[in-house]
Write the structure tokens for this entry.
Amino acid sequence: QSMLTQPPSVSGAPGQRVTISCTGSSSNIGAGYDVHWYRQLPGTVPRLLIYANNNRPSWVPDRFSASKSGTSASLAITGLQAEDEADYYCQSSESSLRASVFGGGTKLTVL
Amino acid sequence: EVQLVQSGAEVREPGESLKISCKGSGFTFSIYWIAWVRQKPGKGLEWMGIIYPGASDTTTYSPSFQGQVTISADKSISTAYLQWNSLKASDTAMYFCVRHHGGGHFDSWGQGTLVTVSS
């Protein structure tokens, strides 16, 4: 089973903007399946951050946005805050809507 | 409130069997797909497989987990299960059950069950 590719780590200073990429293939993102993003704070359960490419649950501030194009997607965080330090995962469907695949995760460090 | 409550941490020896559970509440369990996700210590998330409790023979497994685990469900008690027949040390991980939204994302997560396999 293929995995989505994310950078292992990204970093930024408070107030800056960072982006996290997520690269897939023709069997997942490139097949037209939506991309979703999760945030996992240290020692906690992952939580849905972005769904269906660019939609935020009500608890997520508009500092978080995402986009999808072709076989890739990206998550952008503006106005970086210390509490944004976490692991971020992208997820999409793989060959069918019921099968899923995750990215390897990206550790965001706020300098 | 939508909730998925998982069974508690388990410690087993290699070769032993194990079945962990995930009980849903606050929603109609039988009409949602429920999936299992593995997270090894210090590692990322891995999708293991999924089941439709409304028709419990409707399961799909990741190729990486096919034949290694069994996913089942009992819709009468709103509970999904993840089972091993012969555990290995490499099965040591946190296991999450998740509710699969029709759009493909996981909109609710269980608290996780830590499985430790050690002799």
The longest strand of chain A covers residues 86-94. Chain A has a mean pLDDT of 95.
